[in-house]
Amino acid sequence: MLHGEKKMDKLYTLRYGVLDSSIIFNECGPYSGGPVGWDEEAVKKREEVALRHIKSQNDARGFFTNLEKSILKEGFRNPILVNAGWCPVIRDRGKNLRLPLEMQDDHTKILTCNINGGSRLWVAQNHNLEIPCIISDYVDRFPEFPILETKEDILSYYTDKPQKIMIRKDHFRIRLLPQVS
């Protein structure tokens, strides 16, 4: 059980799986800043914002360069968090305008990294890598992946243990994952 002895009816099933990074929409990586929308101007502006962000992080502490070198040499130390079938961001007329159009029109196609792992996902997508994921599966999209039932199950997939695991009825989050270069 996730919360002591009391069973909690969650809106999702927590699973572990390794996914092709290209199928995940990166809502919290370097390309998450800038205007909403998918017209050519909005996409171009997001790319400009991302490149400035990457440059500033590299100039300050070599963040993206060091992360990329580490992943390519040693692989992924920790899974990213992914939502399947739900995404908690900007809405307009019942649609999440940050999502790609196909995900806006069909929630069962939603597969996003929107809180933990955007930088690692960015590296994975730049190198066409598969990436380990803890998936909050709201639509039973990945029934073949093992279900994570306890905090120990979750922690078993981490090299660097998060200090806080929050398992709520409507969402799952980790906090205070050590930053490793």
Question: What's the helix and strand layout?
Answer:
Elements: E1 13-20, E2 25-26, H1 40-61, H2 63-74, E3 80-84, E4 91-92, E5 95-96, H3 101-105, E6 111-113, H4 118-126, E7 130-137, H5 151-155, E8 164-167, E9 172-175
Parallel strand pairs: 2-6, 3-7
Antiparallel strand pairs: 1-7, 3-6, 4-5, 8-9
What does this structure look like?
The protein is of the alpha/beta class and 181 residues long. The protein has a domain at 13-32 and 76-175: Conserved hypothetical protein from pyrococcus furiosus pfu- 392566-001, ParB domain. It is 29% helix and 21% strand. The strands form three sheets. A five-stranded mixed sheet has the order 1-7-3-6-2, covered by helices on one side. The protein has a two-stranded antiparallel sheet with strand order 4-5. A hairpin with a 4-residue loop joins β8 and β9. α1 packs across α2. It is globular and about 40 Å long. The model is unreliable at 1-7 (pLDDT under 50).
Q: Predict the CATH topology of the domain at 13-32 and 76-175.
A: Conserved hypothetical protein from pyrococcus furiosus pfu- 392566-001, ParB domain
Task: Figure out the total of helices.
Answer: 5
CATH architecture of the domain at 13-32 and 76-175: Alpha-Beta Complex
Beta-strand level of the residues, as a percent range? 15-25%
Q: Helicity range of the residues?
A: 25-40%
Distance between the termini: 34 Å
Give the C-level CATH assignment of the domain at 13-32 and 76-175: Alpha Beta
Give the oligomer, counting copies of the same chain as homo and different chains as hetero.
single chain
